[in-house]
Amino acid sequence: MATMKKIPKKLTEREVTAGLKSLHGWHYLPKQKAISVRCEMKDFMAVIRAIQKIAKFAQKAKHHPDLYLTRYRHLQILLSTHEARGVTEKDFSLAKRINIKGAN
User: Taking the CB of residue 28, how many other CB atoms lie within 10 A of it?
Assistant: First the structure.
């Protein structure tokens, strides 16, 4: 018999807003139902190192962000829990681990 995977509780917009107060540079994107941060790094390789670091955290947490590398040194990270169709504590937990430098 297959076990049902427990779906994390989707946070309300109010809960998301409150949680963002402890995350420098992160914002709520209501249309995407995600939290996001954008950063400008020193150079291309700094972005690649950041992505590798994020990948390790994400793999360990079994929670994978959307990562966008643009203009050779700009990185945007989006976190959302797909099965909950919105932001959950899993997103905040991973965002705290990421703690990216250069966030704006």
Answer: 16
- Tokens 């076990």 correspond to 3
Residues 62-90 have pLDDT tens digits of 999 999 999 999 999 999 999 999 999 99
CATH, residue 30: 3.30.1360.20
CB 41 within 8 A of CB 12: no
Question: Considering only CA atoms, which of 14, 36, 16 is closest in space to residue 25?
Answer: 36
Number of domains in the chain: 1
Distance in angstroms (rounded) separating the CA atoms of residues 65 and 54: 9
Amino acid identity of 89? E
